[in-house]
Amino acid sequence: MPYVRKVTACDRCRRLKRRCDRVRPTCSKCRQAGVPCSFSETGTSSRSSGRSSSSPSSPTTAFDLTSLESWAETALQTPIIDPSTNEVAACKLVSTTNQGKSREIRRRNRVRFSCTRCHRMKVKCDKKSPCTRCRNSGFASGCSYMHKSNGEDGSVEGEVASPEPESFSAIFQAYNTRHRGSSHWRVLMHRVKELTSWDFNLFVESLRPDHAVCTFELTVPINYPFGSQEAIKFHSLKAVMELLSKTSSSAETYVDNYFRIFEALHPVFDVDSPGHDVVPFDASTPPSSIGELVQLAQYLVVLGLGCSATLGTQSHSANYYLAAEACLMKTPFMFRPTLATVRTLCLMVMAKRVANATCWAIDASWSLAGLMLRLAVMLGLHHEPTELPESETMTWADWHARRKLWTTIVYLDVEIAMVTGMPALLRRDEVHSAISSLSYSYGQDGPVTHFHDPLYDALPIIMEIATQVNATTDQLTYEQAVQYNATVRQLMIPALNAATGFRQTTLDIFFRRVLLVLHRKFAHHASSPFDYPISYWSSLECSLALLVHQRGMWEGNDGGLAEVSRVFMLDFISAAMTTCIHVLREDAPLSALAVEAADGAIPPRQTILETLRACVEIWGRQQDKSPCIKTGFLVFGVIVEEIPEISSP
């Protein structure tokens, strides 16, 4: 029989959970309260008789008596409230009385940010969709997140499953059914397929293992800089300031490397004019206005690009890009843009192309460049300003900065349009305006006619070439191609002479790419060496020049140039395919039989093959950095093996 502890306290002290001194016949607590104690003779005999017999001996037990007495005591001590005069007090009294009857059970309702599997295993989750742990473990399809929200009925939403990843066939079909102009490299791939015994299915199979990586394993999200889930951690400015404080010692180095490499690639800042340079931010002073927030976003992208050039990797620069996105999203940039907003988007286009060296990312850059261009048009950068009020007179430095930024925007638009095979978003008359026709001078610093940029003069004709090459009607004729060739080469000389260093290299790549696209239609014709000789030899010259630039970037001592060469990934791929087409043709002057018959008159064939092999080796060294570069390495490895060698004498 279980042990039952003996009750020694009186009923009232036991019920009120007070210490009882057990003084008989009335304890001190009951005596002070003036109520009968259960230790009295009547209460004790009643409780004893009730415990000794199985049936009740009296109609009223001691427990009922003490309960009635305690209720009477509580009623006497409670003030009388008239509900008609004090309704609030009456409600409070009722609530206090019923509190002991029904006690609400409160539960914690924390927001769970980890996926279901990582939360169950109690491991850190990177909150991607799917997360890296689930993807590496083979549970990508089951990676899902729980979102809790308190409804009116206190219910909690259930698990929301992530959508199933797209199949390889759906991704491949979506990529190939997109609109592509003649300037895209896909035209070259079909031409290579015709000249070799290589099965095109090999290209498809080479894509299969890494097709999901093109959209998942990226330095920045594919839709950057809009709605990136990874940027949530920088939603608070405190997190952004902490990021700046961690890299305060390296910030100056990052900024210097940005201006050394990326500013030469696409000039965004007018460093010669005061007030248009990058504004460094103190980590202890958060931005206090919308303008400072935009400048902070601009500064963060500069740090990210400079970090990639300094360390030679993109993994450390991702946080800067995401923090810049979080800052930009806090500003009304869609309907109230500023020059700093447009500069920030220009920098983000560059960051997207450098960080994600994939075909999908470059296609996405064309969409982002369209938004950047439209915001620039909203600011009126595409035409010269009219007369301004005297109180708002534009200085010569302001005009110079606007013109330089607009030149870079058009340059980016044409460059990305030719690489992706998409149409340019501007017409020729929207690009160029006669500077000499302006009679208004900006301030007293100097007349507008002093400004001269050879690249700005060349952009209208290059935009016209890009439009005609990718057009489905009004096809380009050979006579027009020859005329455009002479014009571009004439404009190319002063533009290259005005630039120095890496800027000169990037401009040469740009002009060579334009000439390569211009002559592609005629250079790949069956009788091009005889009917279209200018196009044939110009195409070969420009493709070899691009491959030489690729080798120069990788074989130099500057690791930052090797990293930025990923921007020109599709340019180098197109140049390599064009070169392969030239040496694969059996009836061309560069064929193995023609070179042997010429008896040394055409010696560069072996040099061309060595250049191609060197480029394939370069792609092999960086195949782990991009799935598209890996695919190019596999494809060109097969193509180069099929190119016949020249028999030794």
From TrEMBL:
- Biased composition of type Low complexity is found at 42-61
Reply yes or no: does the keyword Amino-acid biosynthesis apply: no
**Alphabetical list of CDD domains matching this protein:** fungal_TF_MHR, GAL4
Biological processes annotated in GO: DNA-templated transcription
Single Gene Ontology MF annotation: DNA binding
UniProt-listed InterPro entries: Sec_Metabolite_Reg, XnlR_reg_dom, Zn2-C6_fun-type_DNA-bd_sf, Zn2Cys6_DnaBD
Zn(2)-C6 fungal-type domain span: 9-39, 114-145
Q: Does the keyword Transferase apply?
A: no
Q: Which domain of life is it from?
A: Eukaryota
Q: How is this protein annotated for GO cellular component?
A: nucleus
PROSITE patterns of this UniProt entry?
ZN2_CY6_FUNGAL_1, ZN2_CY6_FUNGAL_2
Tell me the segments the record calls region Disordered. 36-62
Among Pfam families, the record links this protein to: Fungal_trans (PF04082), Zn_clus (PF00172)
Q: Where in the cell is it found?
A: Nucleus
Cite the entry's keywords alphabetically: Metal-binding, Nucleus
What name appears for this protein in its UniProt entry? Answer: Zn(2)-C6 fungal-type domain-containing protein
Per the UniProt record, the source organism is Lomentospora prolificans
